[in-house]
Amino acid sequence: MPIGYDGYFYERYGTINLYGRLKGGGIIYHDGSDNYAALQLYGDNSGFTGTFIAKMRSGNHRLAFMTQQSGSGNANWLLDANGNDCQRLLLGNGTLNFGSLSGRGLIRNDATGSVIISIGALNSNTNYSGTLSQANANDKVGVDKVGTGTLIFSGNNTYALATTVQNGTFLLNNNASTGVFSSPVIVNAGAFGGMGKSQNTVTVGIGNGIGAAFIPGTDGTVGTFTTTSTVTLNADAMYKVDINSIAGTTDQIVAGSVILNNPQLVIADIGSGSITTGTSFTIINNTGTAAVSGTFNNFPEGSNVLLNNVNFKISYVGGDGNDVTLTNVGLTTDNSDKESSAFRVYPNPVKDYLVVTWNMPMESQNKMQLFDINGRILRSCVIGGFPYSWNLKDIAPGMYFLKMDGISDLKKIVKQ
């Protein structure tokens, strides 16, 4: 189907078994009326670079993916037909590729085996509001989020295999109170967040990876993510918390249990107000009875986290006794705060070279790391003297975070 042209598959009775290939960059519509008519795709459709739209009509026509190659990681798939299995997975085992996925349709694995749907190779931002499910316990299905774009799941999903984030951002935005999401989430790289609800585990980072982030809501907004199961943040994970100093609100994770394997904690104020001394924010609401396991990197119980030159004392036994809280204790004069205030960077915003200064005596070499907003480590170096000039010419414009070992203050860097 050439770019700029549309084509149609329409069935009213029976089944079309298509062993040929979908090709070109145009739009293909799939439609049908009643009698459970079907289009079954067998061919290698990887050369299709357009958009495939399964229209919502009676809910009685079917689209079936019969082989691994019947999808296309180079095409957009807008699946809107919303009968129980209007989009059927019948390939048994293997990976089915969608360059992007959107629509409100229902996708169901109806064949024994394990199918992984790889979504996002086109690096676009899409919202899938339908339901991904499996006919029974032997018809397993999972998701791999790839590409640099953002994929949102805003419907109820009952598939059992893992949702693995390999790149970009995956947001779960189903109903915060009644939402259903049965898949465990594993974030190897990129970011996970949203304001939805899950009934399974969330694991961010692999321990020694390139970095991964947990961002409730979306970056730059305040939101709450809820799971009735366990949240684990590993050593290469970043928990990015936005606080709105005007509204007095904060990002929050609500979880049945919490494991902190020395991850990074990054706090940002998206407001422009002042926070009264004594104000406490719960950044992790641990709804279970067990204590939080572990701590954030460089932030043991009772240590200070600096935000807008104000110290917030962190506690892992806050709230009702096992929550993670930040309490404004105002300005202090202990040595750690002197070290934080002595750590300076300029110019900021920076175009080419960032100068890092340290206005206190050095006792040893210091390690510096530059993170992006998804928690990935972009640069790392060991500094033996100050001032230090860091060449950031090849870093893309955007917001980053600079961290020096042994200092609680994280510097927000804007690259022009």
Query: What is the number of helices?
Result: 1
Order of strands across the widest beta sheet?
A: 1-3-5-7-9-11-14-16-18-21-24-28-31
Overall SS class: mainly beta
Unreliable spans are 332-340
Question: For the CA atoms, what is the radius of gyration?
Answer: 24 Å
Return the domain count. 2
Secondary structure: helix percent: under 10%
Mass-distribution shape: elongated
Averaged pLDDT = 90
Largest sheet: 13 strands, parallel
Structure characterization notes:
The protein has 416 residues and is an all-beta fold. It has two domains: 6-330; 335-415, Immunoglobulin-like (Sandwich), CATH 2.60.40.3080. Helices cover 2% and strands 50% of the residues. A 13-stranded parallel β-sheet has the order 1-3-5-7-9-11-14-16-18-21-24-28-31, with no helix packed on it. Strands 12, 15, 17, 19, 22, 25, 26 and 29 form an eight-stranded mixed β-sheet that branches. β35 and β36 form a beta hairpin. The chain is elongated. The two termini are 42 Å apart. The model is unreliable at 332-340 (pLDDT under 50).
